[in-house]
Amino acid sequence: MFMEFLQQIKGSLPQLDCMIEAKQKDGALFKLMDELKSHKDIEIIDDASFYIH
Fold it and tell me: What confidence score (pLDDT) does residue 28 get?
């Protein structure tokens, strides 16, 4: 669902900041970043930032 959202807004704004609402925020962030690595149009910048092509 997150990737669908990103694809829909891609190119419409220069930067988007998101907050994770979860009990274990660090774990959720690490899991999300691991999952994003598998997408060909995602460029990982650092442990919590990425760029979508």
Answer: 94
48 backbone dihedrals φ, ψ, rounded to 5°: -135, 10
Q: How far apart are CA 46 and CA 52, in angstroms?
A: 13
CA–CA gap between residue 44 and residue 36 (Å, rounded)? 8
pTM of the model as a whole: 0.79
What b/e sequence results for 4-38 when a residue is b if at least 16 CB atoms lie within 10 Å of its CB, and e otherwise? eebeeeeeeeeeeeeeeeeeeeeeeeeebbeebee
In whole angstroms, give the CA distance from residue 33 to residue 27: 10
User: Token digits for 4?
Assistant: 């669908």
